[in-house]
Amino acid sequence: MKKTKLGVLFIVMLLVISVASASMLIPAADKAKDNVAYYVESDNPVLKALLGVNHEFPGVFSTELTHGQVGFLSALGIKTEPVQIYQITGRPVCGDGIAHPSEECGEPYLPACPEGSTCVDCKCVADDEEPAPEGRSCYPSTQKPYGIVMVNGSSGGAGVTVAVLDTGVDTDHLDLVGNIKDCVTKVTHFVPDAKSCEDGHGHGTHVSGTVLANAGSDGLGIYGVAPEAGLMAVKVCDKRGWCYGDDIAAGIYYAADNGANIISMSIGGDSPDSQILAAIDYAVDKGVLPVAAAGNDGPTDGSIDYPGAYVKVIAAGAIDSAENVPDWSSRGINDGDYIIEEREVELGAPGVSIESTYNDGCYAYMSGTSMATPHVAGLAAKVWDTADGTLDGTGNAADTRSYLQSIANDIWTAGDDTATGFGLPIAP
Ligand SMILES: [Ca+2]
Ligand SMILES: [Ca+2]
Ligand SMILES: [Ca+2]
Ligand SMILES: [Ca+2]
């Protein structure tokens, strides 16, 4: 469109908006009632002021719109597009030990308490009712969970920053506090806990722990894959585990602009989101390596979720401790050529009954491709420096991705398969 035409449109729009705003734009107080999140293809400051802005992207902003407002913008020739809503891809393992990630569970906590105490609401309470000792009140059942052992983790990652885009993090968890470099929230969608980066759910703390928990200053906690890596916790999912595409995209831009080397996203949805894709292109251009969950919609071929399905994002499928693939782990459309294309699973990693850090300084078991993802992201951090062939404090995303593929052990069906891609990566 030519500039003069744009100018005319702008003036016409101002007139139309000034007349229409009273009737078309409902007061902010009522806005939450029938709003849906949209991307609006416009840089117009007047429009932004009138509609409100959740996030600004190049040439696009996101906001909540009513049905009437969408029609209004359409009449003006301004494109709108719904923001995709994704979900976290992990669930607590139930008290009965059933590890199906689609199953809701009321009893996620299984911390091991020291002798003479009992777990009550995720706190170890002394049996003689004396207060728990200072500092640590929860202990893991094992310091190096099976998944960490399988990928040969629990060391390394110095100088590497991993951005975990999730439900936030338990910022004072003893096994994480020493590695937290940054904690921000990008959540904008009407949730009570949106203003804090504290974990409103537990999932983000669990994922972060698998990447880089360091057992705490007392050495009695749990280990992640790369305990020397730095954590950038970027909250993009609310306490229900819902993650809006615009918040995710904003989180990716934030991570790329603030020094993240790796982005770990235990998040998935069935449809692509235009601004997440644009943000990923931006981050990869800046040298960032994104990793995401394959999803929990298996076992049909092609059940892989976005954003993992994007070519530039490593998609991680789940395996159990015997290298079997659970039915629920989403499958790609891998054609076996060892070239990763859109909607192909790239790697397989532990994702069944994974113990890791949880809210309130505790530990929990969770299952899902959400748990496979941080094993891969942590491994990327661990090998980041050496993957480029030199142990010199520097590394890069492209070499790290190739290296992860090269250290993958062929599992499940022979070759580059739909559930585990190149296979299970194991650090040397
Ligand atoms: Ca991919
Ligand atoms: Ca392929
Ligand atoms: Ca190096
Ligand atoms: Ca295989």
Helix/strand layout:
Elements: H1 3-24, E1 36-40, H2 45-51, E2 55-57, E3 60-65, H3 67-75, E4 80-82, E5 85-88, E6 91-92, E7 117-120, E8 123-126, H4 146-150, E9 161-166, E10 180-185, H5 203-212, E11 230-235, E12 242-244, H6 245-257, E13 262-265, E14 267-268, H7 274-285, E15 289-293, E16 314-319, E17 347-350, E18 354-358, E19 362-367, H8 369-383, H9 397-406, E20 408-409, E21 424-425
Parallel strand pairs: 9-11, 9-13, 10-11, 13-15, 15-16, 16-17
Antiparallel strand pairs: 1-3, 1-4, 2-3, 5-12, 5-14, 6-19, 7-8, 18-19, 20-21
The protein binds calcium ion (4 copies).
Range of helix content: 10-25%
CATH architecture of the largest domain: 3-Layer(aba) Sandwich
Low-pLDDT residue spans: 14-33, 96-111
Determine the mean pLDDT: 87
Polypeptide structure, described:
- The chain is of the alpha/beta class and 428 residues long.
- The protein folds into 2 domains: 3-82, no CATH class; 87-109 and 143-425, Peptidase S8/S53 domain (Rossmann fold), CATH 3.40.50.
- 24% of the residues lie in helices and 21% in strands.
- It contains 9 helices and 21 strands.
- Strands 10-11-9-13-15-16-17 form a 7-stranded parallel sheet, with helices on both faces.
- The longest helix is centred in the first third of the chain and has 22 residues, at 3-24.
- It is globular.
